[in-house]
Amino acid sequence: MSLTTGGPTGDIRPVVWDAATQSVVVLDQTLLPLQVVDVQCSDVATLVDAISRLVVRGAPALGVTGAYGVALAMVQAQREGWSTQVLTDAIDSVRNARPTAVNLAWGVDQVRPLVEDGLAAVLSAADRVAAEDEQANRELSRHGADWLLEKLGDRRLRALTHCNTGSLATSTWGTGLGIIRELHARDRIELVYADETRPLLQGSRLTAWELKENGIPYLVQVDGAAASTIARGLVDFAAIGADRIAFNGDTANKIGSLGVALACADAGIPFVVAAPSSTVDLSYPTGENIEIELRPATEVTEYAGHQVAPESDRAFNPAFDVTPARLVSAVVTELGVAQPSQGESVERLVP
User: Fold this and answer.
1) Which entry of 223, 236, 243, 250 is annotated as an active-site residue?
2) Most CB contacts within 10 A, which of 121, 278, 283, 305?
3) What is the three-class DSSP state of 54?
4) CA distances from 311 to 293, 301, 336 (A)
5) Domains in the chain, CATH or no CATH each
6) What residues have CB less than 8 Å from 227, skipping those under 6 apart?
7) How many whole angstroms separate alpha carbon 339 and alpha carbon 331?
8) How many CB atoms lie within 10 A of CB 128?
9) Nearest to residue 293, comparing CAs of 248, 247, 244?
10) How far apart are CA 114 and CA 129, in angstroms?
């Protein structure tokens, strides 16, 4: 039985701690939707590799992974007789495995001060990170749904998503897709256009799978169709997630998000960014200095193991882009909604 999809509630939990084996178990999102496979990470190197290869991805899910990663490092340190410095370096390797997503470092930092208190204390704190993320996801989904229905009228809506912001990207439930799930529960979703999200197809592989599992009507479209779909009036709003939100409301998210935001602004429809408050990084005044992760060229020049470009090493592959605050209709966290495009600060969206 899959530990990540076979829980008592039926909810997808892409990251769990397996007490029996003292390991982090993640749902391999590189194999979905054709295979549902758990990856058992019994050592830090395996976990860091899983993070780097996007076996586990999504900002909130990475936060949970970071927290449990500290516990995993402690288990390995005890098993292999590590020095304090080796343990410190191992925890740092988890924290720094992906630079753009603030939640990974945040999750590590939530539990790291408890290392001297022992494994039980760290695991308790990591469990709390996961539980609080789920609670935040459900609360922000209610806020976002309320805001959209107030802006657009109490009617069935057509949505557009980019990348994956559902249970697979979080502890469970979802952020941008969580808002859509909340609207669907209220019978207020007519149709969802899911951008395929090149180059790794998180939209067609992951979001579409989640929409199907939840019985929500959807169509997968190529990323290049998004602007046209919006301009033709086929969409009422777009909802995405975020990997980091700056003080002024600039948001870093999966590459292609900026194009969706520009199209929404031109069409005059809401562009909504949904994330837990842990994603808001007030230490960044704007998005200008957010580090944009560059990923391997072969993710672009190869497809399913086949080379599709003349030279396999010649590609520009930024994983993220930054959407300026002026294009962001709403930032939604568990604490409420702010409207950066109207000059509202996101500062009140963090505890």
Assistant:
1) 243
2) 278
3) coil
4) 22, 7, 48
5) 15-132 (1.20.120.420), 142-349 (3.40.50.10470)
6) 259, 260, 262, 263
7) 6
8) 13
9) 244
10) 13
| Continuous segment of H or E residues that includes residue 198 | none
Pair of tokens at residue 161: 């998503």
Residue 100 corresponds to which amino acid?
T
Contacts of 307 (CB under 8 A, 6+ apart): 301
Summarised one tens digit per residue, pLDDT across range 258-302 is: 999 999 999 999 999 999 999 999 999 999 999 999 999 999 999
Quote the DSSP letter at residue 328.
Answer: -
Q: Residues with Cβ < 8 Å from 113, sequence gap 6 or more?
A: none
By the 8 A CB rule, do 213 and 201 touch? no
Identify the CA nearest to 336 among candidates 345, 325, 349.
349
Pull the structure tokens for residue 186: 């209220």
Task: Collect the ranges in the chain with pLDDT lower than 50.
Answer: 8
Residue 223: active-site member: no
Tell me which residue has tokens 């230490």: 283
Q: Are 293 and 321 in contact (CB under 8 A)?
A: no
